[in-house]
Amino acid sequence: MPSSRPDRIRKLLADLVSFDTISDRTNLPLIAHIESYLAGFGIGFERITDVTGEKASLWVTIGPEDRPGYVLSGHTDVVPVVGQDWSHDPFKLVERDGKLFGRGTTDMKGFVAVCLAMVPEMLEAKLNTPIHLAISYDEEIGCVGVRPMLREVAKKKVRPLGAFIGEPTEMKVIIGHKGKHGVRATFHGLARHSSIAPDGVNAIEYAAELITEIRRRAVKLAGEAERNSLYDVPHSTLLTSIVHGGAALNIVPDTCTVDFECRGIGITESREVTDAIVAWAKAELEPAMKARHPECGIDFEEILDYPALDTRADAAIVTLAKSLAGRNDHAKVAFGTEASLFASMADIPSVVIGPGAIAQAHTPDEFVEMAELEKCAGFVEKLIAHCAKT
To answer: Which residues form the Peptidase M20 dimerisation domain (predicted)?
Structure first.
């Protein structure tokens, strides 16, 4: 392992990026690599495997296990690269002009690499307050993998004092983010030859009415923007994201699926907005479809759900984050993170703070600046000092 901190970070990030951990694939080789790295320092870990046996999270404690400590949390999965125009292999780290390119460098293997690179310093400090590493999977598809781990953490006798979730914020202290609720509506119509279209029930046309209603409500929400809001987008958002339907030009379509989501500012607002849309569709659209044919109608299913984060600005974890980051400001963001689940499932006060910019996440030629990773390492270094003396 290279001795200098920047070289350690580069090496670890190169290793992490080399594992193709797109969410529809196993992350076990990456997890095994991290376990091997930790074992080299004599550090134990708890692996929490999913029901398929193909995914796992890690819970790591450095320092005394009988005292409450602080969590550094990151996910291992990344978004797909298909259809993106990369200038090089996305799973090979490339450095140019102080920028480290590769899938997941910003979101969020850079943060994980920094935390792992600082393990020697954690051990050397002989911590009085423990530092936990929480490394999860399947964050990108709805914060799925952190939930089994948090259920185990919630059972422990000692609850952590707080958590720092290292999503890309340019090391700004984020105390709130929107929640999200995603719904899939499946319209069941009645197929007929298009020459006798009035005898059929057009699933796409009824789906279009739902899409129009979603758009109408989205405009209404935009008009309710909060004044002096800390959010970068100061209102709840609502949109249709995916639509599938139809088989051929000369067939009345008998099925259409519509995926839509709300990102709500309030803790439960996301679900409240989507529930109201479902109720509207059941009252206005489904009866009209059934009047045409009794077997027609709409099925709804939840496809994603996580709550909003709303940590008090004067909370101890916020004050500590500002001290470690060397800044006095805080903000809120539209994108979601696992922080809200740390708070809601395990009662662990949480903030979001990590290297890199969200504008780089999910993009071709994704990158993180080395300067950002070094700032993050400085943050962790101060956390180590704090935990050594308290």
So the answer is: 175-287
Q: Name the residue with tokens 């393990």.
A: 119
As a whole number of angstroms, the distance between CA 384 and CA 390 comes to 10
CA distance 118 to 171: 17
The torsion angles phi and psi of 352, rounded to 5 degrees, stand at -110, 125
The per-residue pLDDT for range 20-58, each reduced to its tens digit, is 999 999 999 999 999 999 999 999 999 999 999 999 999
Q: Which pLDDT tens digit goes with each residue over 57-105? A: 999 999 999 999 999 999 999 999 999 999 999 999 999 999 999 999 9
Q: How many C-beta neighbours within 10 Å does residue 371 have?
A: 11
The answer for residues whose C-beta is within 8 angstroms of residue 31's C-beta and 6 or more apart is 47, 56, 57, 58, 76, 135
Indicate the pTM of the whole model.
0.90
Task: Please answer whether residues 170 and 246 qualify as being in contact, where contact means their C-beta atoms are separated by less than 8 angstroms.
Answer: no
Measured between alpha carbons, how far is 149 from 134 in angstroms, rounded to an integer?
8
